[in-house]
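Q: Sequence in, structure out?
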Amino acid sequence: AATAPHIRHVHVHNNYHTGDAHNPPGDGLINIRAALLSISALQPLATYTAETSALEASVEWFLQQGFISGAKS
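A: Exactly. Output:
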C-alpha cells in the first residue's frame, strides 16, 4: 500500500515461478485478478498492458474477468 501513490502502469503476465514466462493472465500461479483488483482499489487511474505473446488468450481472460468490455462502438 505504501507504493500505491506511485503506481501508474502495470505490465500483466503470469508464470509458474520458474522464470519470467510472460504467460497470459490465466496461465500461471499468480492470482492476477486479485492483484489487479487491489491495484484498482489503491490507484484507480492506473493502466495496464498484457505483456504476453498469447494475445487472444489474454484478451479472453480480461473479457471473462470483466476488466474490459467486448462491446464495439
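The beta strands are 9-12, 47-50.
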